[in-house]
Amino acid sequence: MKTQVEEINRNIYDIKNKDEYDFKIKKGITKEIIEEISDQKNDPEWMREFRLKALEVYNQLEMPTWGPDLSELNMDEIATYVRPKTKLNTSWEDVPEDIKNTFDKLGIPEAEKKSLAGVGAQYDSEVVYHSMKEDLIKQGVIYTDMETAIREYPELVKKHFMKCVPVTDHKFVALHGAVWSGGSFVYVPKGVKVEIPLQSYFRLNSPESGQFEHTLIIVEKGASLHFIEGCSAPKYNKVNLHAGCVELYVKDGAYLRYSTIENWSKNMLNLNTKKAIVGKNAQMDWVSGSFGSKISMLYPMSILNGEGAKTEYTGISFAGKGQNLDTGFKVVHNAPNTSSVVNSKSISKNGGKCTYRSLVRIKENAKNSKSSVSCESLMLDDFSISDTIPVNDIQTDEVEFSHEAKIGKISDKAIFYLMSRGLSEEDAKAMIVRGFAEPIAKELPVEYAVEMNNLINLELEGAIG
Fold it and tell me: Domain coordinates of the chain in residue numbers?
């Protein structure tokens, strides 16, 4: 019996196009560089000022020292803005051939034809393609790149931009505020249900550069949306940096699901920040898969501000040799009768390190709230590392709260049993790991679930560099 889904080769993610670009800013972070980015992007005056203020905050804040060691990151060696040799296209045919081939191989247009209501594709620092189904436009749904949003919906953007994630949050958010480029803007009007997902795909091609896309989603009262984000980059032997920012506003009675598969190469430092503000009787669901990257520090956050607000987080991370994936979830219960469910899983092998880091804060005014946290770790050998570092800050007695953590190895008995039924040791291990990951996979859109299974196969075979 063959248990593996059809294998893919990591090579499709490691496609390197020639480092050709229309414009690449010089390396480093200075006032002159920020002003040059602003000029290149033709920013309105308020955005130029915002960038310069963010730079001041960046220079004042210290590097985080409580997580993975970031000492190899030298911002003097990172180019923060790379404009590809193309404009924004609304027809796939108009995208330049080399860029189009990359996205074709990653399956983006195919996915769009089959199962997506709209697609955005970013290459290095700019969105190169955007399209959305006509019926959504008629219903008043806005889905465009951030630069277009700033020009065409300035008041809407200004009201929400970096209000959910203020630049003072931490050093890499301040950096993001100064150099951000690209990303997606989504606005779903009151009561509109977007039945088919929207998807953005972020691809970093240029070595020794950073990607700093900004995603801003506003789901108005009673509306609903599923947004999918995919990320990947080819492998270089120089450090690349990803410090994107995602701000989500889920208004009263609205629903938003945000699904991500991050499959960066193993020279990437992934220091991403994601946060949602959730209104009365609204629901925010996160589904997250973290693969690849040398270091990840990623902790999506839901702030439950409205009575009856709910959030659910379902996440998996897979760390192989030389990887340190520090991931988790943060939730603040800021109103009565709110609820959160956290289901996190991690797999580590070949000396990889997975850390689950979480914060559950139930404020004094959040009476009758419920929170349930489950954290499971699977280690595939004797020298991998798995840690759980939860912080639970419960400020009222009138709550239901539970936290459980399990760390274990693959059972030799289970492997022996499967081998006695005719499976090879590799297939037996793969089957157990996929069974462990299955609750997460089933939450993902189908082509991402297949991608995740393929990635697990590749990781188990040690095929990723």
Answer: 10-298, 411-465
